[in-house]
Automatic annotation (TrEMBL), chain A:
Record's subcellular location: Gas vesicle
Keywords recorded for this protein, A-Z: Gas vesicle
Name of the protein this chain belongs to: GvpL/GvpF family gas vesicle protein
Annotated stretches, region: Disordered: 144-201, 276-298
Methyltransferase among keywords: no
Cited Pfam families: GvpL_GvpF
Family membership: Belongs to the gas vesicle GvpF/GvpL family.
PANTHER family linked to this entry: PROTEIN GVPL 2 (PTHR36852)
Biased composition annotated in UniProt, kind: Basic and acidic residues: 192-201
Automatic annotation (TrEMBL), chain B:
Keywords for the protein's UniProt record, in alphabetical order: Gas vesicle
GO molecular function terms noted in the UniProt entry: structural molecule activity
TM segment ranges: none
PANTHER family reported for this sequence: GAS VESICLE PROTEIN A1, GAS VESICLE STRUCTURAL PROTEIN 2-RELATED
Cellular localization per UniProt: Gas vesicle
Principal subcellular localization: other
GO cellular component, one term: gas vesicle
Name of the protein in its database record: Gas vesicle protein
Pfam families assigned to the protein according to its UniProt record, in alphabetical order: Gas_vesicle
Family membership noted in the UniProt record: Belongs to the gas vesicle GvpA family.
Length: 298, 66
């Protein structure tokens, strides 16, 4: 059966081995795709695309448009896509395809390989032996905490008393102080927040600059919206780094060190990911990430 | 801080927003022969629209028609 819709996950190099022996495909033993379908490879021109047959009732244009409005459905698709790509790329080089790429039949997949042939081949050369690590940094202190060294007048709690429900930054009885005092306090709070923000920004820059020196390329993703991440701490760095597979342990270790050196930040490491963020040459911040392993060699 | 002992990321521990950062702003973009381009989707649901624009704020190009 070669007609029907095909969901594309990733492009890999066709090693010339019999189908069952394609590294990426072997890794996918028992892993199913977005429609619980099995994943297979369509080979063409020295490349192969990992794909699965998906039902038209979900993946034809009309239905897909509708399904994408459904957060739960989108999540299921995204996680299945990621699972296939990262499993296939665990040991070999894969070029991830953008989410929700659906072609018409195996013929459509072959046309896709033919059209993108040079782009895919050069990207696979560039990404061979590399993995992506994600590093996020959050400001550890609340954006509007109590002003340092300025205990509220007349209040029993001292500066370091663990205030429970009592939030000095939002006095619920403004009549207790004069307007001028209130404004003065707000100003002090703002200045303290700015100082903390300065530490936070400096820390984030230190983390990013240091990691750029260990990575071949880096890419800054937009900071994550707390409504989506469910993390209320302010996300000040959301970066991806392209790292040689064998340098991964060093990279992770360095992230741990940086986390210890930047008390204003909470640093999180995720990975290794397939190189999602580095599939296009021009999308990466090459100017920042070109320091070619400075300080990493030993 | 978690590092997967070997191979792919530990399943389900990964935040959806981390996955979407990569799947919506990364990955090769194919032209032609598709049923639908994700850029063509006129999202109605507000949370989803917020998500897409949040993930995508600084990288508008992949979403444009080629």
């Amino acid at each position: 059966m070669t007609d029907g819709l095909r969901y594309a996950y990733a492009v890999v190099r066709d090693t010339g081995a019999p189908e069952a022996a394609l590294d990426a495909l072997t890794a996918l033993e028992g892993v199913t795709g977005v429609a619980d379908e099995s994943v297979y490879a369509v080979r063409h021109l020295g490349l192969a695309v990992l794909a699965g047959a998906v039902p038209g009732e979900d993946y034809a244009e009309g239905p897909l448009r509708e399904r994408l409005e459904d957060m739960a459905w989108l999540e299921k698709m995204a996680r299945a896509h990621q699972r296939v790509v990262d499993t296939a790329g665990a040991e070999s080089c894969v070029l991830p395809v953008r989410l929700a790429t659906v072609c018409h039949g195996d013929e459509g997949l072959r046309r896709m390989l033919a059209t993108g042939r040079e782009r895919f081949a050069s990207a696979l050369d560039r990404l061979e032996g590399r993995v992506e690590w994600g590093v996020k940094a959050y400001a550890t202190l609340p954006a509007a905490g109590p002003p340092a060294g300025e205990p509220p007048a007349g209040a029993a709690n001292t500066a370091d008393a663990p205030s429970t429900a009592d939030a000095p930054s939002t006095p619920n009885s403004p009549g207790a102080m004069s307007g001028r005092d209130y404004l003065r306090r707000r100003k002090a709070q703002r200045q303290a927040a700015e100082r903390r923000w300065g530490d936070t920004e400096e820390g984030a820059r230190l983390v990013h600059d240091t990691l750029c020196g260990l990575a071949e390329q880096s890419r800054l993703h937009p900071p994550q919206d707390p409504r989506l991440s469910g993390i209320s701490d302010h996300n000040v760095l959301n970066a991806a780094y392209l790292v040689r597979r064998e340098d991964s342990a060093d990279f992770a270790e360095r992230v741990g060190e940086l986390a210890g050196r930047t008390p204003a930040l909470r640093v999180e490491l995720t990975g290794p990911w397939a190189p999602y963020s580095f599939t296009a040459m021009d999308e990466t911040s090459g100017t920042e990430g070109k320091t070619e392993g400075a300080g990493a060699d030993g | 801080m978690t590092m997967a002992p070997e191979g792919p990321l530990a399943h389900q521990q990964i935040a959806l927003v981390d996955v979407l950062d990569r799947l919506l702003a990364g990955g090769v973009v194919i032209t032609g022969d598709l049923t639908l381009r994700i850029a063509d989707v006129d999202l109605v649901r507000i949370d989803l629209r917020a998500l897409i624009s949040s993930v995508n704020a600084n990288v508008p190009s992949p979403w444009e028609e080629p």
